[in-house]
Amino acid sequence: MLQLQDFRAARRLISPHMRVTPVFAIGQPDFGAGLRNGTTTPDLFLKLENLQVSGSFKARGAMNAALNLDDAVREKGLVTASGGNHGMGVINAARTLRVPVKIFLPTNTPKPKVAKLRKSGVDVSLHGAVWDDANHAAMAHARETGMAYIHPFADPNVIAGQGTIALELLEQQADLDTLVVAVGGGGLISGVATAAKMLRPGIRIIGVEPTGAATLFESLKNNEVVTLPSVNTAATSLAPRQSSALNVDLIGKNVDRIVLVSDDEMRAAAGWMWRELGLSVELSAAAGLAAVMQGRLGDTAIGKTGIIVCGVGTDGQ
Fold first, then answer.
1. CA-to-CA distance for 97 and 118, rounded, in angstroms?
2. What are the Cα distances from residue 192, in Å, to 12, 37, 72, 154, 186?
3. Cα 106 to the center of its chain, rounded Å
């Protein structure tokens, strides 16, 4: 089980290669009529991981996992499956460490992300309709070649790397009452929630998933890993059909609730961030703000609220 020292060790290890991303205090914004269901907008603080190297928080976990490999293993190269952002994070780690890299993507990956990955000059393969299919191909490639496979969410070193965000954020804004985190496979919220609860046991952690990919919502409801029969969301970086026992366990212990938002609600939030704040983000990065805008965080007072803006994109433009 991860301990606070694991998150601190990850921070020391990756800090030469990462940015300390800023926190943007936006107060209690007016989102317009009909968006909040009558709820009061909390004081909001945005943790801008869209400004992280490679364009998302994924660089943290990928770098920590790569640096924890034995030298001989790492030199054979890195391979992964990704909805886009984790792939960029693994590419960043491979280039920093000067080792080969191969990325598998599902065919539902947004075309701009595919183009961005291919433009980087690395070996990219499209395989299967969803992330889970691409992941099977990536693991098979790792077995065949000896390259080191880096899982995007079910790896303790990846989770520890993502959890460094909580250490940073609670230094930058120590009085947060609530932290809102987008949920895909669960690596980000597993790390952030675990580390945040160790530092501040009373902080409230809320996860946000798309209605069309409620993987962790269903897993926690059933107290087991649930495989969705299908996923249906444009937020493809939040769309695995299945998480893992490791993530379900950490989330079950440290996350207060998971709420759902639609693609249209994420688009509205991404559009607001572009128009009002000049932040260009993907749908997944707008999930947390969408939950706030729609009054989904619950009936109790949520106080000062941090939202992790997890990745760059153009969905709001």
1. 19
2. 16, 28, 30, 14, 10
3. 17
Q: Where are the alpha helices (DSSP H) in 78-227?
A: 85-97, 111-119, 131-145, 156-172, 187-199, 215-222
Q: How many CB atoms lie within 10 A of CB 70?
A: 8
- Note if the pTM is more than 0.70: yes
> How do residues 242-261 score in pLDDT, each as one tens digit?
999 999 999 999 999 999 99
* Secondary structure of residue 135 in the 3-state scheme: helix
Q: What is the pLDDT of residues 209-235, one digit of tens each?
A: 999 999 999 999 999 999 999 999 999
Amino acid at 274: W
Output the CA angle 3-92-164, nearest 5 degrees.
Answer: 20
Confidence band of 38 (pLDDT split at 50, 70, 90) = low
Both structure tokens of 306: 């941090």
Q: How many CB atoms lie within 10 A of CB 211?
A: 15
